[in-house]
Amino acid sequence: MSANSAWIIDITEENFETEVIQQSAQTPIVIDFWAPWCGPCQQLAPMLEKLVEEFQGKFRLAKINIDEQQGLAAAFRVESIPTVVAFQHGQPVDTFQGILPEETLREWITRLIPSPLEILLQEAQLAEETDPALAETKYREASDLDPGNDAIQLRMAAVLIKQSRFEECAKIISKLEERGFLEPEAEQIKSQLELQAASDEAGGVEPARAALAADPENADLKIALADALAVSNKHEEALEICLALIEQDKSGAGVEAKATMLKIFDLLGPQSTLTSDYRRKLATLLY
Fold it and tell me: Structure pTM?
């Protein structure tokens, strides 16, 4: 039944993992549980096969003969056939039993097909870590399709900061902040931008160390060094400097040191052991 199409495949227990579970991460899979003796199955099959050709690979049709693949039928608790199951991202997302009119079946399948916007967002998300510039291009295209989508703007900010395009990133965060709130990731990006600006002003870690060495008691230079260290991923040293300042002077330089610590906490995220450890140390000093 599947020999005439590249988008139709017979499924067995041996190939289910690769052809359904893994493949559904890229393309929706429609599973047709059938049997040769089932009259309704013979009526449904031509409609499904017609539609898989009509959609030109936007979904794949996976045929499971329940007489030959009783284990898969049992796993899906198939009690009557035809049973049709839609799979996306490794999970079943919809199902029906029996026969649907062709137009209803077409509408059911259409709901499974990602929109152009969803495809762009998926492609952008996949590219974020390995190719931020490509992700940016995809997010810009997605933003053109949905200009008011704040989630897309946040993802754009995330890939811009990966490319050290701080000014452009700051404009997006500032615009998002006009709503009166920022999502946790946006707060994290804002803190990174503020630390980066302070680090740039200090000239980086080594110039900041040299400046402090020439004036070891200068609290402002200590905070400048902490900012530079944080941007260079030397978070623990930065936190120690801030903690020592707060211990010496809670109401003076300690206020700015605390603000720097909170930005570093944002940068690290709540799951970081450094965040939890130094939040506890900070609380002990203040309260």
Answer: 0.70
